Amino acid sequence: MINVTKTYLPKQDRYMAYVSQIYQNGWVTNNGPLVQELEKRLAEFLGVKNIILVSNGTVALEIAYRTLDLKGFVITSPFSFVATTSSLVTNNLLPIFCDIDKKTFNLNPANIEKNITPNTSAIAPVHVFGNPCKVEEIDKIAKKHNLKVVYDAAHAFDVSFKGTNVLNYGDISTLSFHATKLFHTIEGGAIIINDDSLVEKARYLINFGIKDAENIPHLGTNAKMNEFEAAMGLCLLDDLEFIKEKREKITEYYLAELKGIVEFQQRNPSATDNHSYFPILLKTEKQLLKVQQALNSESIFPRRYFYPSLDTLEYIEPKQCMPVSRDISTRILCLPIYPDLEEDSLKRIVEIIKSCLNE
Ligand SMILES: *Cc1c(COP(=O)(O)O)cnc(C)c1O
User: Fold this and answer.
1) Residue 359 C-alpha to ligand 1 middle, in angstroms?
2) According to its UniProt record, which protein family does this protein belong to (predicted)?
3) Which CATH architecture has domain 240-358?
4) What's the fold here for domain 2-99+107-234?
5) Are 354 and 22 in contact (CB under 8 A)?
């Protein structure tokens, strides 16, 4: 069976060496030595000032909103994983959707300003499939209207824009280190904070809001990463170059073979590509279903990321309708991409797609 992705596991002996270390010192969670080591290595590797590791990418978003004390309405993208929207709703924030650009699949900055009201406190865009948003335009709009910016950068691990890591844009960016992501810690995530003065508060928030033995200044939660997860991250970081090279080869193959047959995501020309996903856009949903069925019949399971469009979620009131996002979400399919996807399988995937679309 071939899925859209397959969790990358490092050599077992390397992971076990870290596990032995954990057994020796008996420190399994609460900002342990491996979490501290991974934070340090990631800050250096990514070129970011402040990074806080947390238990998953969803809680990373929630901590970001709470750190910035967001209230009222937040402008966000309807074309994302459901956690982008649900994390707002669970924090009593109302998602105000802003339709996407049909080529980049990212929130279209041209649609932001008309959605700003006195109740708007922030913009929460998504770097969809690791493709950076128009960060300069978004930041300009935010400054003009005194809004905060929280980027859901769950897909944008190790992506640079104009020579700097894209995580350095906005007030806060969040990452997901779930097992299905490019870089993972089994479950996990991170918060990247650009304003030094907010770091302490975020650190309290991930630990129940506790400052010290006698002071609990904030309403916090439990969002801590544990040592076994950090150990996985340390192993993955050592293998990242290898992982990215393999993914790049697959990307190049798909691009060359499917060019002119399907539509690709338009990538930001000033950014690097981390090859985290390989989305294709079909002409119609009917065509998509045909391709999906043909692949499924040979035990190949691409995924409909992102479907459905988040403006169709039943729990969002008032109802909003984002035609571009709805249209793209019915026609997009993410193809399998992971380091040990075999060449024969890759060839077969392309053959099946071509034969479906040539009929
Ligand atoms: C994966 C993902 C999340 C959630 O991260 P988890 O670590 O699974 O909680 C949030 N936003 C986007 C865009 C994602 O792809």
Assistant:
1) 37
2) Belongs to the DegT/DnrJ/EryC1 family.
3) Alpha-Beta Complex (3.90)
4) Aspartate Aminotransferase; domain 2 (3.40.640)
5) no
